[in-house]
Amino acid sequence: MKILITGNMGYVGPLVARQLRVRYPDGFLMGLDTGYFAHCLTGAPHIPEALLDVQHYNDIRSFPESLLGGVDAVVHLAAISNDPIGNVYEQVTLDVNTRASLELARLAKASGVGSFVFASSCSVYGSADDRPRTERSELSPLTAYAKSKVLTEEGLRELAEPGFRVSCLRFATACGMSDRLRLDLVLNDFVACALSAQRITVLSDGTPWRPLINVTDMARAIEWAVERDSQGGDFLVVNAGSDTWNYQVHELAEAVARAVPGTEVSINRHAPPDKRSYRVDFSLFKALAPAHQPQATLQETIDRLRQGLQAMSFQDQNFRESSFMRLKVLADLTSRGLLNESLAWVHRSAASAVTPKYSGRLESAAVL
Ligand SMILES: NC(=O)c1ccc[n+]([C@@H]2O[C@H](COP(=O)([O-])OP(=O)(O)OC[C@H]3O[C@@H](n4cnc5c(N)ncnc54)[C@H](O)[C@@H]3O)[C@@H](O)[C@H]2O)c1
Q1: Mean pLDDT score of the chain, rounded to an integer?
Q2: If pLDDT is split at 50, 70 and 90, which confidence band does 366 have?
Q3: Buried (b) or exposed (e) across 244-267, using 16+ Cβ within 10 A?
Q4: pLDDT in tens, 1-38
Q5: 128 vs 132: CA distance, rounded Å
Q6: What's the whole-model pTM score?
Q7: Do residues 178 and 12 make contact, with C-beta atoms less than 8 angstroms apart?
Q8: Which atom of ligand 1 has the smallest separation from the CA of 96?
Q9: Considering 65, 211, 315, 334, which has the largest number of Cβ atoms within 10 A of its Cβ?
Q10: Closest C-alpha to 213, from 88, 119, 148
């Protein structure tokens, strides 16, 4: 098995690399990432890419087609990966998440790749009433990020055919510990607030529905999609998560407060309704992938996050201004002239800009 994982150097990627390495101990696993967050390791015992056979540093907007030779499956994670970034970089979001992603899929198909797994998102449902959304429900993407996922799914539908199986996994919001932890995700944010300030402030009235999935369970779903048979058809869109993980935001805050004694929860009961609210029906995923259903519990997920953050001596009440936030990392790289306004690396200035501060890291990168 030869598998290419794009966007492997983010939050989800390290878990996917581990899952696929366990599944294919002798497989050839390649990573490809532009490396925005490569330096944002969070307590990792070794660099996660050590589990791969090769790591490529490329931008998918100029994808080197030759890398696809002999590849059986592409797991496509690379993306501008949340609403706040998409709001600031709307055009870049569409360019990376839709145009370049569809071009990658075209190249993959032409190169004989058999399975293309796309990390889509339940945010395509946007704002909805209380009824759980199925894959056939109307879509209501509220942001550039969510719209980009809808457009990519539509383009992939056109490309799928026998021999080029496409699986769009509409993931619930991710949570849980990772070698490159993000704290711009709701449950992770609550755990960080509880540990650093002993207080969780819910900005909404706490009622919005937010289905979650642990990152380890995302990786299990991806393993299933890589290998799935023809049961779901050449083109499959499936909600990836589990019915029991449909939570309201206040339930998440309360669960974290129970796990971190001394935490107060404050809910803004008078807040205007939060538009992003949706419950999701995961029964199709359950029927298609009975052996790859989510396994983590909410309690375990919170405990692992707490342990992971405590092991890093995490206490930063100001973490929303830190490199735990994807948008902050990109803002820092652009303000230092390392990325341009299209979020492409500016290599020449990069060399002189990073040397004084990061010379140690650059030396170790060269050794690797
Ligand atoms: N985290 C979630 O809650 C969640 C939920 C649903 C779907 N997803 C999807 O899962 C995927 C992975 O999410 P994540 O949380 O790991 O995000 P992340 O931001 O941590 O990682 C994304 C990775 O993609 C890379 N990347 C971005 N633009 C690129 C480009 N032009 N060329 C090459 N690499 C590029 C980044 O460097 C980064 O390593 C994304 O497609 C995201 O939309 C995530």
Answers
A1: 93
A2: very low
A3: ebbbbbbebbbbbbebbeebebeb
A4: 999 999 999 999 999 999 999 999 999 999 999 999 99
A5: 9
A6: 0.94
A7: yes
A8: 31
A9: 211
A10: 119
